[in-house]
Design a protein that fits this description.
Two copies of one chain form a homodimer. Chain A is built from 13 helices and 14 strands. Chain A is 45% helix and 17% strand. Chain A has helices at residues 5-12, 16-24, 31-44, 50-57, 73-86, 102-114, 131-140, 162-175, 191-207, 221-234, 246-258, 277-280, 292-305, and strands at residues 62-67, 92-97, 119-122, 143-146, 156-160, 180-186, 210-211, 215-217, 240-243, 268-270, 287-289, 316-319, 322-325, 336-337. With 338 residues, the first copy, chain A, is of the alpha/beta class. Chain A starts with a helix and ends with a strand. The first copy, chain A, has a six-stranded parallel β-sheet, with helices on both faces. The A-B interface holds A 1-2, 47-52, 54-55, 58, 60, 62, 69-71, 73, 76-77, 79-80, 83, 92-97, 110-111, 113-116, 140-141, 221, 250, 254, 276-277, 279-280, 282, 308 and B 1-2, 47-52, 54-55, 58, 60, 62, 69-71, 73, 76-77, 79-80, 83, 92-97, 110-111, 113-116, 140-141, 221, 250, 254, 276-277, 279-280, 282, 308. Chain A binds a DNA duplex (30 and 30 nucleotides) through helix 2 and helix 4.
Chain lengths: 338, 338
Amino acid sequence: MGVTIHDVARAAGVSVASASRALSGRRKVTPEIAERVARAAAELGYQPNAVAKALRDQTTGTIGMVVPGIGNPFFTTIVEAVERELQNSGTDLLLCASQYSPQVEARRLETLLARRVDGLIISPCDIEASVPAVLDAARRVPLVQVDRYIEGGGADWVGVDDEAGLALAVEHVIAGGARSVVFAGSRLESSSARLRLSGFERTAARAGVEVLPPLLGEFTLEWGVEAGRRLLDSGRLPDAVVCANDEIAVGLVRSLRFGGVRVPEDVAVVGFDDVGHATMCDPPLSTVRQPVEEMAAEAVRLLGQVKAGDPRPAQRIAIAPRLVVRQTSRPVAAGVAE
Amino acid sequence: MGVTIHDVARAAGVSVASASRALSGRRKVTPEIAERVARAAAELGYQPNAVAKALRDQTTGTIGMVVPGIGNPFFTTIVEAVERELQNSGTDLLLCASQYSPQVEARRLETLLARRVDGLIISPCDIEASVPAVLDAARRVPLVQVDRYIEGGGADWVGVDDEAGLALAVEHVIAGGARSVVFAGSRLESSSARLRLSGFERTAARAGVEVLPPLLGEFTLEWGVEAGRRLLDSGRLPDAVVCANDEIAVGLVRSLRFGGVRVPEDVAVVGFDDVGHATMCDPPLSTVRQPVEEMAAEAVRLLGQVKAGDPRPAQRIAIAPRLVVRQTSRPVAAGVAE
DNA sequence: ATCGATTGGGTAATCGATTACCCGAGTTTC
DNA sequence: GAAACTCGGGTAATCGATTACCCAATCGAT
């Protein structure tokens, strides 16, 4: 397999230079030659070899994307949005999952760099362990972080304003009458996990409500179920639970209801992300929506501006989230009802 | 950016040939040279250019995968399984979503072929419209279809035995006492959609139960909700609904219960896939599990054997599915209870 | 001592597309 | 009519890694 431009040139009776020019249109050729080349290419089914082109041009027309896992609907939503964004720019996406492991992540970055991607979009899985690999990559190609980021600067970032999002959620349940609140989130291994907890704590403290000790596990449904069980076992239910993402919230609602607790009458629950799980929940979940399309658009735009190893200070673009009130909380506060 | 092997050779004071040999170990060099080259490479941070290697070797070490959409958890599960399977073979996965459009699918195949992937794994989105692009691709590189396939042969396939799966589901609800059944599935645009419907009809007919007209829409939660609404509106509920996938089933359960129907007491519901949605449902969904890991392993194995444009007859490997009884059906029949 | 084999290093061809550079023919201009 | 340009075509260099091929040195055997 492999019709080359030499074959086309020979079939058309011209030099490879003319064939190349006729096909790319980057320099004039006589209509006669253009015609002969076009016909020869069509007959032979010529398809330019992107590998050779990449080597010669020193650009591959691909960008790499690394996310912790594509099982998590939040990340698949972002990936889809980025893909849509790239759609018509002639750039292809090379997608990798790090499986929440900094080692795998580093390996994936290595191979993407070896394949000479023109840029990278990454959501680093661990706020500390991901640092060396990400900074090293940022030194070599344009790189933008999305959603999660690493500490220490040096690489641009686009994401939601996590603290503001949690503030929205906390203020909402307080406006609904909650006097005691608890946070159900993930262990503090990612920036999102940390910022959401701190946003929660800050807002709750400012409002002066009672704050129970946070429940920290993973960003999964299973952990949500477990967290709900622990609340039930503790014998002391708060008026509201604010969760670090929708999967936790859905699991938690299920487990509370299973324990005979009414949601939202006894306990209000609010999630975070709003990427599909929320409407699947019963009752539909009140949550904070991440502006995924905007984040993707912004990330791609930013990537176009970034240069590898750029010494200018890293940019952080935090997009404002939006509260979506459904039925796991009382519809008191301002917000979009659906 | 770009330390080449020439730079390494110069720094080590040897020829590029020696440098290459020292680094690859494919021919002996003196320990002295090996040492100098290794040191130079490390100091310069040399990383071989995969593009150049691919051009020279005529193999890229990548395989392309095209699925209808990564929003559907069934496909992400397959993708993850294939990725795991490829993990240690040094092959990378180039993932594309066709967005359920044969045009997009054809374009994605074109660019994957232009990038000279070593093989393709595809789940063609449309049983008719996908034919030309898929067959053309199969003529040029090894290609294996997974889950969905196109009519007319010419390309290998690995998937679940859809008809057998539906037979399991139908027999299960009948054993549970159902005397009237209905199928909620998708329009017949894919092989899976067709085989699941025919498996349903054949088994129901053989058992002699009453069969209501099938509800055909899309493989989505929304369609499940709508299908449930139509059943409620029809004024005539069947004893059991067998669904073409779990998303439809989850939506349907929700909408039935919303209409005051008890599941499984009034109507039993069974899904298909078992990729996570099932346990999220309330009550947990009885379903037919697709052996995703096995399918992925088999697809990768098969891909290693297939040659491009191989004239031998296409293979079809149908793996047996398994019934998983949870709580949307009566636990009567044999099957795995969880 | 000589021949053949073995070992290990270097030179340059190769993969395929693009394009810098050169060249000849035809045009324009004074 | 000759110098200066323009136009369009061809030759070969280029991207970076690998390796076919060649060659010198060394060793063992006769």
